[in-house]
């Protein structure tokens, strides 16, 4: 069996804030034109007017993805600066009110607003998506069912949304709570084949429920636009090195599962009820309380799980030139997730709740450029 390319592509969504007030700001048309002139099709508006999305090209290594995404982040930051604005990479603005935000006036987003009703209005959230190139549909379907087991691990490392409308939610990823209110979200179903996936999509399209597979928003899905498997569970990390580390981990996990397939082996597919429990633990605690190892029948500290993950994909990291990128995730275990770091800034800041929340935003502004 020929080895797939395992190329990667990364998409990030950012929130735009006013440098002085730290409030969310509408992306000016002039700024969007500047970004598009500099980045072409790698930048686009998002659902809400305060959001902007970027996407790398097709990258063979994590190093290529780092360079491309660093260029995208720098360009967005520099274009925004001339308008008194700045981007932050976090899945929720700490204190913004979703009721005061407006969606982008494009046909696609107008239709989405009509379709989703009130739950769509609350979509003041940002995510990070990783595409892994797999040009065989049967392989994409097979790996999707196995890769689902690792989705909680990826979420736990990425969490960046502890605050919502000026309050600590008690969750490490409040974004997941918002997104799960939409239809066709959550863990992907355990499908037996690519044909089973296509039958499900065709049924929904024929009924007029969705136009195409792009309206399926599972945590992990076959991309409707590219021959890729798209991981969508992650919060957007403030630090570029963490984004690239997560992308490299997804890439390596896909190759590890492919290696098993070549040997007529596979990762055990656990019932969604079990994986969903780990998903909740990641959503609630990030890396703080560990995840369940169902094979061992116990809750394991996340640092131990992380070491096991790196050992599991060590061969693949070497082949894919991803060792350095994976090492970039290790500071999360010592410094905390973004949600942990945001809470630490809040706790260390004197003054009112508003002062503390603005200190968190200043922290996120700094982290956006930390690795650039």
UniProtKB/TrEMBL annotation:
The processes (GO biological process) annotated in the record are: modified amino acid biosynthetic process
Q: Which family does it belong to?
A: Belongs to the glutamate--cysteine ligase type 2 family. YbdK subfamily.
Asked whether the UniProt record includes Magnesium among its keywords, one would answer: no
This chain's protein is named Putative glutamate--cysteine ligase 2
Reaction catalysed by this chain? L-cysteine + L-glutamate + ATP = gamma-L-glutamyl-L-cysteine + ADP + phosphate + H(+)
Keyword ATP-binding assigned to the entry: answer is: yes
Alphabetical list of Pfam families matching this protein: GCS2
> What is the source species?
Thalassorhabdomicrobium marinisediminis
Keywords (A to Z) from UniProt: ATP-binding, Ligase, Nucleotide-binding
Organism's domain of life? Answer: Bacteria
UniProt cross-references to HAMAP family, sorted A to Z: Glu_cys_ligase_2
Q: What class of enzyme is it?
A: ligase
Q: Which GO terms describe its molecular function?
A: ATP binding; glutamate-cysteine ligase activity
Q: What is its EC number?
A: 6.3.2.2
Role played: ATP-dependent carboxylate-amine ligase which exhibits weak glutamate--cysteine ligase activity.
